[in-house]
Amino acid sequence: MAAPAPSSSRVGARLSRSASAVRVFCTLSLAVPGLQRGCQAFADEPAPPATRLLFFPSGPGEGRHAVALGGIWQVAPQLAANWRWGLPLGFSVGASLQTVVLRNQLDVGASWFTTFGPFFVGASMKFGAWIGFLNGFGFDSMAWGAVWEPGLQAGLPVAHDAWLTLVLQGYFDIYEAARLGSLVFVPSHRTLYLGLGASLIVELAAEHGVIYFGGGIFHTSPNYPAWINFSYVDPNKYVYPSVLAGYEF
Length: 249
Prior knowledge:
The chain has 249 residues and is mainly beta. It is 11% helix and 56% strand.
């Protein structure tokens, strides 16, 4: 059974400090009616959605969690599982798993959000560990490593049961190693900045959960996410699309 939603008054009180500077400016702009109306629109803070959301910056809500199963196509199709738990003061923690045998990655991290007018904005910090296998057809290799993934999010409710989120995600290499047959090597020189991704995700409330779908554009080194390229020192970045979809419980 889903946990009860926190009251909008309690959540709204928690977020009220984020627009204090805007309210002060609006008070000083009383002499300019047009500016005053625009300020007031931003000073009226929206309450976080009562629906438990996974990708929207506010997350599932304080003391509640959201779990999602779906898929993502990013160079190759992958199964995806996500979990997020809401904490006080706008914080949340979460984990995600993407797997396709060739590359399997587990991410853990935390995020925080606030409001700016009708927008929900957030920042996140994730760390991931991955391992990949390529056996058969003359190949006997595997690779493993760790990545750092800072991100920014901006969300907007577009209807009473629909939410739109823009996600910007950076990718930085922490460690990487590979095995080719019996030879194991760790590249001494590699590209630390792997690239950047931007995704637009829609979440729609359903009868017993939330449907999500979206797409994105990535600009990364050829070694991410396809480690089999072994392009550790290639300074070039390549552009490719991605699509994702799934269901949140």
